[in-house]
UniProtKB/TrEMBL annotation:
One of its GO terms (biological process) is methylation. It comes from the Bacteria. Gene3D superfamilies: Vaccinia Virus protein VP39. The keyword Membrane does not apply. One of its GO terms (molecular function) is methyltransferase activity. Keywords: Methyltransferase, Transferase. It is an enzyme of class 2 (transferase). This is Class I SAM-dependent methyltransferase. Residues 40-129 form the Methyltransferase domain. Pfam families: Methyltransf_25 (PF13649). InterPro entries: Methyltransf_25, SAM-dependent_MTases_sf. It comes from Sedimentitalea todarodis. SUPFAM superfamilies: S-adenosyl-L-methionine-dependent methyltransferases. Its EC number is 2.1.1.-.
Amino acid sequence: MTDEEVLARIYTGLDREGPGDPADVAWAIKRLGLNGARAVCDAGCGSGADSETLANALPKAQITAIEQLPHLVKEAQARCERIPNVTVRQGDMARLDGPFDLIWCAGAIYFLGVTAGLRGWRSGLAAGGTVAFSEPVLLGSADETVSAFWQEYPAITNLDGIAARIEAADFEVLDHRQIIGAAWQRYYTPLAAHLVALRATDDPGLREPVAATEREIALWRTAQDRIAYALMLARPR
């Protein structure tokens, strides 16, 4: 079973593929004062949860949702097929044509790196355009549980470290907020139930991936108040 096939088995049918909440989208839109006929990109849209939220919050905007994994593209297209201002297409989020007034990226910029991702997206932004992205963040010092949770992301840093990466791309930080607690519960609760169903199939190719994901959820449950993303708003200087 390929890595892509494993991901498809674990994440197909879920509302979202990472922590987040419609309130995060609402906060960013309000903070940026976005309205009217804007061009918005949902970069790394997954199954389209935030694409749908963006479209509902900005009904006059055109939302372009970009996703690389075929099974998620199909889910996002099915989810958004009746939403007239959303277009879902398969593509590389590192290469965005634009121009976009907002590039939204929930939990996916780490595939590119914050600095490299922002540099690559600069040419896809309209004048005055903004990038909103969520990125793993350390809250204070990392204890044993937090370190174990983030062991596959050694590049994690604190808020100052994220700001430094933004500044290295010649962007400025406009604002930020934490994604913690309920937004993670929204992601992990259905995922945990799905893992129980997958474990019951006793598929040899899924045993270790399912066990690893269950360990991840257990670590989060132990340290819910210390595991977070930072939702960053950044604009080119």
